[in-house]
Amino acid sequence: MKNLNLNKYGVQEMNAGEMNKTDGGILAALAIIGAAILVGCVVEEITEGPSKCWNDFMKGYNSMR
């Protein structure tokens, strides 16, 4: 199997500090996803009302049983 030599394309190996800084961790991604879900729930609560939201939730929950 051939190895791809990326040095000729100007690619350099990253050290551990650079990888950590670039990656940023999974916590930031989870926070963004959680915030998006929370905003969606608040918008639905405001536009459709609490009883409709609860009925939709229970309908989805019961469909999984």
Describe this structure in words.
This protein has 65 residues and is an all-alpha fold. The protein has a domain at 33-65. It contains 3 helices and no strands. It is elongated, with a radius of gyration of 23 Å.
Q: Mind sketching the topology for me?
A:
Blueprint: H1 16-23, H2 26-48, H3 50-63
Helix pairs in contact: 2-3
* Structural class by secondary-structure content: mainly alpha
Strand element count: 0
Q: Percent range for helical residues?
A: 55-70%
Chain oligomer state? single chain
What does the radius of gyration come to? 23 Å
Q: Which series of helices and strands comes N to C?
A: HHH
* Beta content: under 5%
Task: Give the tags.
65 residues; mainly alpha; 3 helices; 69% helix
Describe what is shown at a glance:
Helices cover 69% and strands 0% of the residues.
